[in-house]
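Sharing a chain and its predicted structure for anyone who wants a worked example. Both blocks are below, sequence first, tokens second.
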Amino acid sequence: MTDHPHRRQVLGGAALVGMAALAPQVSAQAAATQALKGKSILITGAATGFGYLGALHYARAGAKVFATMRNLPRPQAAELLKAAEAEKLDISVLELDVLSDSRVAQAVSQAETQAGGALDVIINNAGIGITGPIELQDMEATRLIFDTNVFGAQRVARAALPAMRKAKRGLIIAISSQLGRVIVPNGGHYSATKFALEAMNEQMAYELVAHGIDVTIIEPGGYPTDVWRNRNRYTGELKARIDAERAAGYPAVVSRMGMEDGSGRSADPMDVPRAIADIIALPAGQRPLRRAVHPGPKPQEAINEVAAKVQMQMLGNSPYGPWVKAVHDIG
């Protein structure tokens, strides 16, 4: 294994600050907007939340956006296309169900054809939550959340990577969570899937250094998006299947299952698309492996720092050292 010139910068805003210093009249946000022009970006789960907001945000910055979602036709697709027409935005809506190998492959192929080659950015945003104690998570719920949050991201990355490798460029972004590094009781398998998503994407980051492809994991805190409504639906379906013996072990928790509303969460969901746009705008090789996004506490940052040090202690002087050093921007 040999060293590689691509370097990732954990303090990802530094490059934009540098650009602003060279041209003080241009803000960091303006630099990010300029850098997105002409980029081809595929987003999963673009019907709601960060995916929907991001599709509009990146397209308004001049990107060619492939907003993917399942169960077309649907109102959200019509709304996106209406906004695209009104604002003359380059947004295509494609049907993509992350649970289906064939539909993922077809959608990625369609996007690559329309883009004229490898996609610049994949944003694995699709995800679900199902709450309740682990014991109450039956295999139907367990399979569904892992298939969506982990296997779905794997399907999309595998579909897009061959063209990216051939082009020697690209960026894979995974939407994780604070709960991909810390755990709250009664959260079902949400943390388990996000921990797996984090590990899978960190490993890809090392493996793709030599191919010029960056990987960034976004770790949002809690935001008032449709995730709560969707979580309640899936949790309500699980609650209806819980047998009396198991439910009796957690009566207080079961009584609240499916009743979360996200109240008290007032942070602006646009924080996430803005952070992603800033990361896309960074030079290849200088993008951070992880980015915590939330105006409030970010408890995962301490874990991220320790984890990076442990990776270096374990592998820094091994044949894998150049890969790990490149990802963590250590010379």
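Comments welcome. The radius of gyration is 20 Å.
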